[in-house]
Design a protein that fits this description.
Helix 2 packs across helix 3 and helix 7 crosses helix 8. By secondary structure, this protein is α/β, with parallel strands linked by helices. The strands form 3 sheets. The protein has a 5-stranded parallel sheet with strand order 2-3-1-4-9, sandwiched between helices. A two-stranded antiparallel sheet has the order 5-6. The radius of gyration is 18 Å and the shape is globular. It contains 10 helices and 9 strands. About 30% of the residues are buried. The protein binds adenosine monophosphate. Adenosine monophosphate (AMP) binds next to helix 2 and helix 3. The site of adenosine monophosphate (AMP) has 17 residues, from helix 2 and helix 3.
């Protein structure tokens, strides 16, 4: 159980490039939560050429969603195999209404005391700007951005990871045509997910255009306020 005695689960929604991954890592560290990034898990499976990876690869490359059942089983398995005693942070999941309902019906979530959903939003042009400048470490998964988080070292045209020295890459799906397609899929699918969490009074809107620290502070203040109210948010009244 977490230091405040309750299981805390957080969902981060938002378009690609909104900073979900960065914020999820910081929140997971602060509240000692299990970080579940379905995108990272799928990319690692592709890298290791597992059955899951081979199944997911073509979807990821095209910027399409991997089938719901595949992603849901992966999340369930991840939760059972890892320590999520304090709770978990879901980054990049759910992506559509079907996944949102699947998550809500999961025994693990039903039994949890505190459930918070953040929608970190940024305008489309900003998402494109951030994603096209993003660099990714395929080894330790660190994320850089040539706009505001430059890696320190480079060899020729390639940047190296500050943490592990690996050569950084542009994700296949951060290529311009794929970025547009991912944003299109996001806008097509996310409306009903937002309505679903609004109806449950679980949704908090966060303006993601600001700097990382400002966004993080707002997330933490909101979480702490909810914890201070003993997690008696509207959801528990239903
Ligand atoms: P992300 O790193 O979250 O941007 O995810 C990268 C890609 O992985 C997405 O464009 C999808 O192809 C796939 N993916 C990640 N999460 C999901 C999900 N919850 N449902 C379906 N596909 C996903």
């Amino acid at each position: 159980m977490s230091r405040f005695g309750k299981k805390l689960n957080i969902v981060l929604l938002g378009p690609p490039g909104a900073g979900k991954g960065t914020q999820a890592k910081s929140l997971a560290h602060k509240y000692q939560l299990l970080h579940i990034s379905t995108g990272d898990i799928l990319r690692e499976a592709v890298r290791q050429n597992t059955k899951l990876g081979r199944e997911a690869q073509s979807y990821i490359r095209k910027g399409e969603l991997v089938p719901d059942e595949v992603v849901f089983n992966l999340v369930k398995e991840y939760l059972t195999q890892r320590d999520c005693e304090n709770g978990a942070i879901f980054d990049g999941f759910p992506r559509n209404i079907n996944q949102a309902k699947m998550l809500q019906n999961l025994e693990y979530i039903k039994q949890s005391d505190c459930f918070i959903v953040f929608l970190i939003d940024i305008p489309e042009q900003e998402a494109i700007r951030r994603l096209s400048n993003r660099r990714y470490c395929p080894k330790c998964k660190s994320i850089y951005n040539l706009l505001d988080k430059m890696p320190q070292k480079h060899v020729g045209d390639s940047y190296l990871c500050d943490k592990c020295g690996e050569r950084l890459v542009i994700r296949d799906d951060d290529k311009p045509e794929t970025i547009k397609h991912r944003l299109h899929i996001y806008h097509k699918e996310i409306g009903p997910v937002i309505d679903f969490y609004k109806d449950l009074s679980l949704l908090y809107n966060i303006d993601g255009i600001r700097g990382k620290e400002a966004v993080f502070n707002e997330l933490v203040n909101t979480v702490d306020e909810i914890i201070a109210k003993d997690c008696k948010n509207d959801r528990n009244k239903k």
